[in-house]
Design brief:
Helix content is about 45%, strand content about 5%. By secondary structure, it is mainly alpha-helical. The chain is flat and about 130 Å long. Strand 1 and strand 2 (about 105-110) form a beta hairpin.
Length: about 230
């Protein structure tokens, strides 16, 4: 096995340092003087040494030793009667409203629970909020501007308003066309095994969807304008 050539030198240095510390503490530590030996109760906490108490001078009159107090003072106040009157005139304390939410009688305060309709006592209860009134006025103003715009175009002859009879006739015609397409759609074969059948089905579905949009548009609007061609 490998052995270093510095082994003996290291062992000598280690032993030389170790021998100087075999006793408690370092060998070169200065020893304490015998005069300062540990005395009894020297490490116990010492009591607080405060300043001597000095009484301050009294600014008021000092009672004389031979002075006698006033004797025989009596009060005509009837304490029993006053206590009875105070109790009779006292306003009784109102019980705190509570509610019970379990069969075992678990009590909770009623006011912060949300069961009391406090909003009924508000000053603006039952009145229309300000923002709704403003919104209605805004909608009314926009509708008036639109009506004025339409009347101007109608005066120029660019637009025409459909009458109720014309609107009903158009609506009935659209529904009739939808029924015819729906009848044709119901007559298609169940198995779509060729490209012409597939194209025919897609055409019928698109036509029915467009008719449904037109019918819904006319039913939702009572007033309809059309442009002159």
């Amino acid at each position: 096995r490998f052995i270093s050539k510095h082994t003996e030198t290291i062992e000598k240095e280690w032993e030389s340092k170790k021998s100087s510390h075999k006793t408690m503490g370092l060998a070169k530590v200065e020893r304490p003087c015998p005069k300062y030996f540990l005395q009894k109760h020297s490490k116990e906490p010492k009591p607080f040494e405060g300043k001597p108490f000095k009484c301050r001078e009294n600014s008021g009159q000092v009672t004389i030793t031979n002075e006698k107090p006033i004797m025989g003072l009596q009060s005509k106040k009837n304490f029993v009667h006053n206590n009875v009157m105070d109790i009779l005139m006292k306003v009784p304390k109102k019980p705190v409203p509570i509610y019970v939410d379990t069969k075992r009688g678990n009590k909770n305060l009623l006011e912060p629970s949300g069961l009391v309709h406090k909003y009924l006592k508000k000053k603006d209860f039952g009145k229309t909020p300000q923002y709704i009134t403003e919104r209605k006025e805004e909608v009314k103003r926009v509708q008036e501007e639109y009506d004025a715009y339409v009347k101007e175009y109608m005066r120029k002859g660019a637009m025409k308003q459909l009458t109720e009879e014309e609107r009903d006739a158009v609506l009935q015609g659209l529904k009739k066309n939808w029924e015819e397409l729906h009848h044709e759609f119901q007559g298609l074969s169940v198995v779509i095994d060729s490209l012409p059948k597939k194209n025919n089905k897609l055409r019928l579905e698109a036509s029915m969807k467009n008719l449904e949009k037109d019918i819904d548009l006319i039913e939702r609007h009572k007033t309809i304008y059309i442009a002159h061609n």
